Amino acid sequence: MQKQVEEKVKGRNMLKIAGYGLGMFFLLWAGYSLITGKTFLIYFGVFFALVAFAVANKERLRKFFYEMPEDEVRDTVPLSQHLNNVVVGQEEAVKHVSSTLLRNVKKQEMKGLPKRVLATFMFVGPTGVGKTQTAKALAGWFGYYYGHQFLRFDMGNFSDYHTAQTLVGSPKGYIGSEEGGALTRPLMHNPKAVILFDEIEKAHPSLYKPLMALVDEGEIQELSTGIRVVLNQSIIIFTSNLWQNAIRYISENIEDEVEKEILIRNLLTGNFLEVSRIVPQHILEEDYRRFTGDSRSETQHFPPEFIGRIEKIVTFKPLDDLALATLVVRKMEELGIVRTQEDVNRLQKEIWDLTWKYREVADKYGVRVFLRKVEEELL
Predict the structure, then answer these.
(1) 72-318, what's its fold?
(2) Contact 326, 86 (CB under 8 A)
(3) Is the pLDDT of residue 298 over 70?
(4) pTM of the model
């Protein structure tokens, strides 16, 4: 492994040295031609100098697709380790996310720059188990290595037609059109981004068309100006809390990954005939009652053509006791209650007591409320 790294770095350095050397040679040639009045040779020298400098900077110019960090050698371990360090208890989801991204980066090496976004995910499962946190952690990793920005949109804020238009910019002539789109304007400054559309089921249906175009074509057009932004280095993430219990039942009872994803896609597109053969009726009815009780949700299922464009649906499971206990320890570290492993060992009873005391809170309301209750108990 180390030998591969050394050979790769050596080859890249030799390419840069050769490129810069030739570039300087042609620049000097162009300067000499200028002094001697040989106009044609000036253009000749400048042209080949630019070509040489471009070759020298090839790795930098195409860094995102053709160069992973030197200590990685195209391996998912650093990314998956980073995600697992940040997100507790979701190892399976992290594995799917990191392997999908690595596979797509390798595809870009073989086929060149893509015409689609780098990857499109939908994170599904209970609320407060790490879906949003995973997106943030992913953005942190890609931001550190490749300069990606993180854009998050709470789709509950785009639930009616007029607010939905503000995402990509109101049509020219309408009020607010000069302000541009909430999504498009930041991307004009930096088209490399991890973009999170949180709780996509709350979005107005009119947004599905531009979002499908974004996923399909790897670009988005601002309605007010007509400017197109190319996003073929971006990662798109949708999250949804729909059909939590049914998805959990499928995840726990179906072992085959392909069959599991097909069933979840059927569920999300409203194809209940197939799903009802696997999932008990009372679970579907419970999820339906939860949906109808949330007035902010725009739909109980998505258009099949929208779900068909999602590359990978990633299921997040409810957190078990060990994961919750780990979060309690992290909260204690944050508050300065524990600083060493000896402190953790000494407070084992208190840690587990807090975990079990608020276990039901975590199941019902998610990790954020669970940690808030734990913090109130500790302070």
Answers:
(1) Rossmann fold (3.40.50)
(2) no
(3) no
(4) 0.74
